[in-house]
Amino acid sequence: MNVLVYLIPVSIFLGALGLLFFFYTLKSRQYEDPEGDAQRILSGIYDDAPPED
Amino acid sequence: MAAPVSACPACDAAHLAEETAGRGYAGDGGESRRIMLSLPQVYCAACIVGVERGLATQPGVRSARVNLTLKRATVEADQGVEAEDLAAYLTGIGYEAYELDAGALSATETDKRSRDLMMRMGVAGFGMMNVMLLSVAVWSGATEATRDLFHWVSAAIALPIVAFSAQPFFRNAWTALRVARLNMDVPISLAIILAAGMSVYETMHSGQHAYFDAALSLTFFLLAGRYLDHRTRAVARSAAEELAALEVPRAHKIVDGQEVVVPVAELAVGDVVRVTPGNRVPVDGMVETGESEVDRSLLTGESLPVFAGPGEMVNAGEVNLTGPLTVRVAATGEDTSLHRMADLVAIAETARNKYTSLADKAAAIYAPAVHLLALGSFVAWLVITGGDVRLALNIAVAVLIITCPCALGLAVPAVTTAASGRLFKRGMLLKSATAMERLAEVDHVVFDKTGTLTQGEPTLDNMGDHAEADLAIAGALAQGSSHPLAQAITQAVSGAGIMPSVLSEVREIPGYGIEAQHGGEIVRLGRAEWLGARTLDRTATYLKIGKRPAVAFTFNDALREGAAEAVAAMKAQGCAVTLISGDAPAAVQDVAFRLGIEDYRAGMLPEGKVGALEELAAGGAKVLMVGDGLNDTAALAAAHVSISPASALEAARVVSDIVLLGKSLEPLGEAVSTSRKATKRIKENFGISTAYNLIAIPIALLGFATPLAAALAMSLSSITVSLNALRLKARRS
């Protein structure tokens, strides 16, 4: 059971990493226009960066 | 690139725009300005491309981005670019567009709040997943030291996260408790705090059951409900506010012969203001100089313009049509007829505020019941076990957690989000949180006429009675005027492909008509009295050529797009339809006949409209009022639920529960059927969570509830109600 000593921190670390990415997406306003993002995938025009604010 | 095939008619125009686009404009080096446009009719990928590329072709535009969720475009442009021109351009290429006030500060604030909720939700989700993983290990048989370790790790994750994420509930609960009231957040906070607190106690005494995962998933699911609720309202509120921010009331005040633009609020009685043709009169007052005609349709519903000359009174909200007027201010601000109307509205509105939403009704029963149940089980187990506080408390907490309104908290917001999203797609903006429920109860619809069922713009209807030469002269006379009847003639004549005659010495005589020379004769187009003609009892203007007797051009008010469909749809759904208008009987009868409305009343004053609505309400009818004018505002506020088109006067939009963003009335029919479906779903969801409580509560009361059972029940019921809500969205017509 000693392996838990590593595994628990590792799993929490990975989860925290996901959380940090979520903060990043939130900060860069990626949830402002879910409808539009769903439709834009059909348009064939590439737009790499979300608007800067 | 090729735009995808879509059912959106406006998108065909997208191809036009694409060919000319594709250049990057970096600006003229100066400060950029941000312009916001409302786009009620965009709804597909090709629309986005069409609008963005179309805007990019406009001089001075640096970048443009469409937000489809909010149906808005944000444009970065040079200082000199006017929002009005961009909106006109977009409307020209087939996308209805309106200018919005970019400075609306509240929009960014609601933005911040929704991001805050989402952040808390994300954190709660993270904690829930981690603790759930650890809990699975415990549930599948970890014992002794391992179990205690897992509980301690869970506690280390759960406590700070609950303290952070559940703050919105704690705050609401505290505000309610401070004024000695119970709301939904009190049992929620109590359950979260007790679950966490008791779990810590159990962990310290190496107990078997810890509810850290329950505390976190409660927080997570309820935050999800809260977020949905907030987003739905924020979208509606910010758009409605910005629509309102469109009309900045300004007046042209005359100071020492010079015109100065001042806010209406700064005008005083006795000031003189100038009102140019095409603009709204800002105040109540008496005409000093100038002659013109004013359009009172928004105030009274009259579709015929009224003559205004020196000594005549004009009211705030009327539109000056033909000649410039100077008006001496007789009343400003609160004393204007516009504001007196607002008082009527205030009285009518208090009646409506009494409406209790389904969610509030449920909470009013639910919150005390849960507390009593938990308290009861605590006392009962205390007695049964002869004073085992730990066991009694354990069971009481299990009861609180199991009954906690996860499903209830999601049941309403999930449905309203799905339904209002669907209505928003059809161009309807729900401003009020309870509008949907009230709309579902509607069984009687009252329409206003001018500007609501009709476009408020006349069209020529007796073209066939006139010789082509006469039409050519009428068209030429009408060309230079901004009077709506003249514009209707111009449109009809050019539409028929008739070349206007060549005239000389054309002059407009404000308030009367237009006069010119044609082949040595005087030709005149204008009011009957001016030409010595007999006045007809309908909207008409008259043409006199030389000595020949005057001939009449008659008009009717064209029906608004979708009006017939809306009336038919309402009838099909079992609603009685009534037309109440302030206009003359002949015009009202005509519209009622064309739309197949049997019940109509003409010549109604604002008080009369309210009276008619109260009469209907007294008879047990739930009335939906659809109107746009100032004369409708009181009636809109008095009705059970109300809808106004975006073209309505601000006062009317403010009191309405729903604003129609597009031009067409057609979505009205769907509004009622969607809201009926939504209310049905809400009730179903309440049913689901009640059923689940009926099974879970006895188990918890008997002390058989385990953290695993709680987690299963909570997740299952939350997912069931969410899926049930989504059924609304899935079935598209």
Automatic annotation (TrEMBL), chain A:
A UniProt-annotated Pfam family: FixS
Transmembrane segments: 6-26
Entry coiled-coil feature ranges: none
Keywords, ordered alphabetically: Membrane, Transmembrane, Transmembrane helix
Cross-referenced InterPro entries: Cyt_oxidase_maturation_cbb3
Annotated protein name in UniProt: Cbb3-type cytochrome oxidase assembly protein CcoS
Species name: Maritimibacter dapengensis
Gene: ccoS
TrEMBL record, chain B:
Membrane topology term: Multi-pass membrane protein
Highest taxon in the source lineage: Bacteria
Main location: membrane
Keywords: ATP-binding, Cell membrane, Ion transport, Magnesium, Membrane, Metal-binding, Nucleotide-binding, Phosphoprotein, Translocase, Transmembrane, Transmembrane helix, Transport
Subcellular localization, as worded in the UniProt entry: Cell membrane
Start and end residues of each HMA domain: 33-98
InterPro entries (UniProt xref): ATPase_P-typ_P_site, ATPase_P-type_domA, Heavy-metal-associated_CS, HMA_dom, P-typ_ATPase_IB, P_typ_ATPase
Transmembrane segments: 122-143, 149-170, 182-204, 210-228, 362-383, 395-419, 685-702
Homology family: Belongs to the cation transport ATPase (P-type) (TC 3.A.3) family. Type IB subfamily.
Alphabetical list of NCBIfam families matching this protein: ATPase-IB1_Cu, ATPase-IB2_Cd, ATPase-IB_hvy, ATPase_P-type
Record's protein name: Cadmium-translocating P-type ATPase
Organism: Maritimibacter dapengensis
